[in-house]
Specification:
The structure is a homodimer. With about 300 residues, chain A is of the alpha+beta class. Chain A has seven helices and 15 strands. Chain A has two domains: about 110 residues, no CATH class; about 140 residues, Nucleoside Triphosphate Pyrophosphohydrolase.
């Protein structure tokens, strides 16, 4: 297990036993409780650079309140905004603010962002189109149509992200929207009806025409854009040939151990490496690259 | 990697490059194409005990057709029923039929069941309540409301399921709806904002009051009831004490290596073991127990 995993290790206890007990949630909604201050879905920082919290008195009168959990003896909540402008759904403004957060605050923020965003996008029942209402402190929404009554649960989308290795090189690709010369690990959503190992092999072949085998799990990390579970894997490639799927990627290439080491060292200084720029430390691709270098 | 993983290894190529190309899908919709025969969401078997297929001519005139992929040069499809009676959403009838399917057919069925079920439950946009329409051969649904336009993707729910070990015993629990004396591995959905390892520790503590550490990944398996990705893990327990959460479980107990070996051998004969009955081979808990026994 790599030493640093972003968006993990929140200090807030999810306190599952409280969620199903409306009285227990009410008892936590005191003047002592904390309300997470968000700007749309972006974090707001206090003067010390920590996540900013206010009190429940600051919540909008009719806002749905989500129970994030308990820290110390204080209930921690977030409110669901009526809507989020589409322009605010990307990771642009959050990305910058995130670089200054402590590891625990980053985890609290990530979980809250995913949960709040899910509520904004699930005000209606996907089964019958009726409105839904909050249940279990925000860990469920129920269809209000008695003939339907479908229960909906916060979504987590598993994504495989993989370092595929051949001849002591690893395969990295760049998406069109990446900054110039930036490369990262190939990745893709796990589909219904496949294992993690099948998803790794399918995505590697689809995106780069490379056949992967000996898939092994390395590390997992939440990724709150909007609500992925990144599942980092390693695999071996059967051969060196690459056929880039140009509908997905600008380019895919093999990078040597020395090139990856240089890119990681450069990223710690906020710079691009000589051969390529790698993702920052809160991206699991960075964690995977460090793991691969350490493993020697 | 254990030798057998249920719901994995379909012979159908998902052919992702075809999905975004309506002309290519049309070209596969010939008299040569195959339509999966389902009864609600349950499998229908032919005289040889394989999955039954018909031709697209048998599809309902206005049914949405889902592109499952290609086998040989034939397009394989499933149709979306208008609705599924609630009584048919369980695993009861499917469970029995599944026991006779080949491994490849079981995988094809599982993936199709999850995808068809998702479409039935997503005819409306969760964001605005408007109807949705099928896109990309069924691997997407689009909101028809131009002011919304949200894209929706088939859901896969990651679930951690874990063998927690102490003193060469493993912790198993029974849910109230299990057959008498049946026990299985503890399990729970991964929530937004946590790693796999955090989810394993949280669920083990919530359900049995046991603190888990040294979590390691063992195996993954799709579970199409309705669309889970089971992520099988092993962990060590800090102590022997158990506090059962009676809202989740009837009981949780430690079982010895001999008891687990007996239960697995009995399950291969379709019987219950002396100490407990374990899940059948297409449940990942069975795979995990075999893995634990083999590892010695």
């Amino acid at each position: 297990m790599p030493p640093f995993v972003a968006f993990a290790g929140s200090n807030i206890d999810r306190a599952d036993h409280v969620r199903g007990d409306p009285g227990a949630i009410d008892n936590l909604m005191t003047t002592h409780a904390r309300l997470l201050n968000l700007s749309g879905l972006d974090p707001v920082l206090d003067d010390d650079g920590n996540l900013a919290w206010t009190s429940l008195a600051e919540a909008n009168a009719d806002a749905e309140l989500l129970f994030l959990g308990i820290e110390g003896d204080r209930g921690h909540f977030a409110q669901v905004p009526d809507m989020i402008p589409k322009a605010a759904l990307g990771m642009g403004r959050a990305w910058q603010a995130m670089t200054g957060l402590s590891d625990a605050d980053l985890a609290t923020y990530g979980g809250a962002r995913s949960l709040v965003g899910w509520h904004v996008r699930h005000k209606f029942c996907s089964c019958c189109g009726s409105p839904t209402s909050i249940a279990k402190g925000g860990w469920q929404r129920d269809c209000v149509n008695e003939n339907c009554g479908m229960q909906h649960f916060p979504r987590v989308d598993p994504v495989t992200i993989m370092l595929v290795e051949h001849d002591d090189n690893i395969l990295l690709g760049r998406q069109p929207q990446f900054p110039p010369n930036n490369y990262s690990a190939l990745a893709g959503f796990v589909e219904p009806g496949e294992t993690l190992e099948e998803a790794v092999a399918r995505e590697t072949f689809e995106e780069a025409g490379v056949s992967a085998y000996d898939v092994s799990y390395v590390v997992s990390q939440p990724w709150p854009f909007p609500s992925s579970l990144m599942i980092g894997c390693h695999a071996m490639a059967k051969s060196h040939e690459i056929t880039v799927d140009k509908t997905e990627l600008d380019d895919a290439r093999w990078f040597s151990r020395a090139e990856v080491a240089d890119a990681i060292a450069a990223s710690d200084r906020g710079e691009s490496g000589k051969a390529f720029g790698c993702p920052p430390r809160f991206a699991v691709a960075n964690v995977l690259m460090r793991w691969w270098l350490d493993r020697g």
